[in-house]
Here is the input.
Amino acid sequence: MQTSVSDLLEFCKVGRIKHEPQWVDMDQVIVNAQEELDLPIREKKAVFEIQPDMPRIYADPNRMNELFVNLLSNALKYACDDECDCKIKIGYKQIEDEIVFYVRDFGQGIDPAYHEKIFTLFQRLDNTRSGSGVGLAIVRRIMEIHHGRVWVESNVGQGATFWLAFPIAASDESSVVTNEQEQGESHGG
Here is the structure.
């Protein structure tokens, strides 16, 4: 009960307690999340495959850390059991006017009937595992305040991929910059 109340309070803080947005090194965000989850990562013998040179985004750095801690924690809980190797892939793509990050696991998967439900408060698909059912609601809320979106692609027995889409807007502070754009700017191109 205490964990649920604590998680609910954290959910309520998202969007109310704002930190000054800044350019966030997403490679460092992933490192920070892994450091915070060091114990469960070691316990599960998790192996991460991380795409190098993630783009930077203009965002609240604390919320970006919270977002990836929640997603990686979920992957460790639901995709890493005794029946499979614990492998988690993290990467990104540019799709039209968005930079889209993903966290992919190879675990039990999620029935498509629950794809929307898992992002609402206190929704848990497996009550035998620890957690309050607030983590993915926090992820959705963080994405909303950053003018982005989150969704999952999954089928039972085929793992899950969580997608985080951030808008690319050249004229405002909600923009994303890829490493190639940054290098071009620094070289006068």
Notes: The first strand starts at residue 22 and ends at 25. The radius of gyration is 17 Å.
